[in-house]
Amino acid sequence: MSDVLDNDHVHGSLSEVRQDLVSGDWVVIATGRAKRPHDFLRQKKASFRQPKRTCPFEKPHADALLTLASSGAGGKKIERWVEAIPNKFPAFKRGICNIFHNTGPYQWTDGVGNHEVVITRDHERSIGQMADAEVELVVRAYQERYRAIKRGDCVRYISIFHNHGQGAGATLSHPHSQIIAVPVVPSDIAKSIRGSASHFQERKECVHCVMLKFEQSDKKRLIYENDHCLVFAPFASRLAFEVRIYPKSHLSHFEEASSAEISGVSNALRVSLGKIFKGLANPDYNFFLHTAPVDGSSNFRHYHWHFEILPKTAIWAGFEIGTGIEISTIAPEDAAEFLRKVKV
Questions:
Q1: Closest by CA position to 80, among listed 121, 114, 47, 109
Q2: CA 95 to the chain's CA centroid
Q3: What pTM was estimated for this model as a whole?
């Protein structure tokens, strides 16, 4: 295959097997049975809304770990726009870490860590419907809690993620994100770190920066750009309308991002989710942060932190489960072109 990907090939009848430049994972872009962007508009689904009167996130929490205020209509101050609280049903709790046990050939350790919830004041509006200033408070809350949590003795990785919609795993409709600190480096992160390190050792350059430079010049998968961020559909998209948000400046650790970079990322996140909300009629989705592990060293300077957004446009079936190779039925070039045109 030619090194240059042309549009005729993308829209041909033969599917493509593309490789992720960082992880090495393969995905299938099933252009042979390609769908148009409008084919992904969700059918009317059952309402997933709980009334305010029964919502546990409506009232301020006495055990809040962080509260950030916002200015409302007419400059009126809203005392609690974002609130971070301990998760009432944590997957990970504080305890004694680094104690590993053996059960026959298997190894295990206690689920020691931390689990918090980041809640927005508004009961209805998703992040894609908010204003830039509101989203920025959410991302700043992520960063402030990240900095506080990383000081824990048992923390090796901190995952920040957001589930929107029942199909994406949300159990409450009130917009909220979660922060989980774990005592191990997750396998998906470890694979990404290895790929990034390998590229750097061979070519002395950041593989993510290489992608950013190419996507910015090629423009086929570019969705949005501001002074600090680039938003694009990955060349090897795992799902239709997968989106990634990268800061333009090379930085491995999210917690080290400057105030200006946080503002830029917040704007890019709001625009990206707004385009998905309007263009795909509010699908369920997950977004999450990928950043270097927590260890206080410079061993991960080759890495480049970013956010990934995965709309729920497909369900894993036998092939995906059996092989780990995901199939997307729209070319990322077409997905990007569609989202570029959505006005938010």
A1: 121
A2: 28
A3: 0.89
